[in-house]
Amino acid sequence: MRRRTFLVITLSLWLCLSLAFGAAAQTSSPQAMLLDQLKGLSTPYPGEFYDKSTSKGQLKITRFSGSLAEMTGLKLQGAVIDLDSKLNASEKKMAIDMQVNLQGHTYPVRAYLDGDKVILDKSFLELLRHMLPPEAGPSEEELQLLPTYLYVQGPELGDIWKNISYYREQQMPPELKELLRFFLEAIPSKYFRVTPTQFTLELDQAGWEETLGNLVEKVKNEKERFAELVANFVSSSGATVSLGPAPNSMFTRAVMPSDLDPKKMREQLKRDIVQKIDEAVKAGDYPTRADAHELAQNFRLQEFCYRASLLPGGTKELKAAWTFVDEGKTLGGLEINSSCVGTRGDSRSNTALKLHLLLPEGLRISGELASYTLIQGQQANSHVTITARAVDEKTGKVQLDLELVGDSIDRVDPNVKVETPQLTPENSVNLETIAPTPPPAPVTPVSPANVILKLNGQLFFTEPPAFIDQNNRTMVPARALMEALGCQVDWNPVNREVTVTKGDKVIKMYIDQSAYSVNGVTKKMDTAPIIVGDRTFVPLRFVAQEMVGVRLEVSQERGLTVVNILTS
Predict the structure, then answer these.
(1) Can you list the domains of the chain with their CATH numbers?
(2) What is the C-alpha separation between 203 and 295, in angstroms, rounded?
(3) Which of 96, 118, 250, 479 could be bridged to 111 by S-S, CB 3.0 to 4.6 A?
(4) pLDDT higher for 158 or 539?
């Protein structure tokens, strides 16, 4: 029964989102409005804000206390974050300049979005050192070893620009649109009303129960379609999904790349969803209409009404409220109120969300969100306040007391210039290369015993030995050979950088990266350096190419490849 209830709860939450956001579509009939023509995304911002714009804002953490706050080790109460950002979607660039004022100290932090990269300057690590306990933050020595910029890169980050283009065109991302379509199809048409001047969607408790029952059966009967829609939505949205953020402000979503190939993840997720549905049906755990009815009694709808004027500049308004009930006892409730009036370029919108809940263990939770946006021409002013509080009813102990207050001013700026740093192997490192990861699988040389090295005609032995890799390149231990050639070799484990110095020539190489530099000039080798055991291996041809006076003689002797490294 628990599995049935969990699935019904999940579907009902999705339905709530579908009702709240799908109801904001605009067209001429209810069916087309919610099932076929989901084009409006209920964001008041005109498309120009998602193209070229600037934003100035401030976020204040006015309260952050309680036992849960103490457990995090973060010292955030009283923090003030000033933001100055620029967006140029045509060039796929965004820059955010932050000044974080925390406990009497000011920390400048810069972040950039450039194509498929998110770039941070390492100054944010200084902020982390102040915020976190000493054992959790980076040490001064680690900071000194890091280059100026840290970045993450991936195709899913590049998809941000595709989503921004939808907002710019005032369209809903197709993956989200089709998923909402599926959920909204479960709502019986009798709950829609249309007049020449107004569209209305209104549900009562009976309609809520009927819709949940329809949805449960719809997922089972259309499992392949449902699985594909969810998989498409998840794989296209990356780590998080935005349902219409401010285009260029502190409220824009944060993203991190997935470690999985999106196509493979999509196909695997689709198979998993279908399999779970089949298993639940076979085991008798799949929820029935009776289960949906039981959940609707515990998650009771008090009000759901969305009204939208069909006249230009008319009011759109959503009012929704649920109560949480367990064994006849009311535990809490959820309220959503939202309204918008005016045209795209001249509008006012308000949103208020309130949650209060008493958990069985005696923890009382409450939270509120209130936002206001005023758009006049090419300027938008926004304000948001978020509060959260958790109190143990038995002891009176406060576990969390949080308040965030944010303000921003966005302006369309057709002449905006966004400058992002030019990354090189010397001034940057990919965070994925320095993040803690499981030990890599050992590299198995293709033919380690078939390569003999000589240095000026004398046998030259290394441990581990040289080998020929899968690309038919001879790989040699970097330190052993370079030091034999009179070079100084240094290793930086933080960004996995190998520095080779001889005279006035400085060569910098990076593990698993084909790009390297010579006296600051970036070049490329055809095979990247790798680690075998605890030794760095580089292609021998690279050594001959960069070391002045070094040449190679290759011969075959009794089935063995003999490489003579000549320095004179």
Answers:
(1) 3-42+170-243+257-295 (no CATH), 47-164+345-434 (no CATH), 451-567 (3.30.457.10)
(2) 16
(3) 96
(4) 539
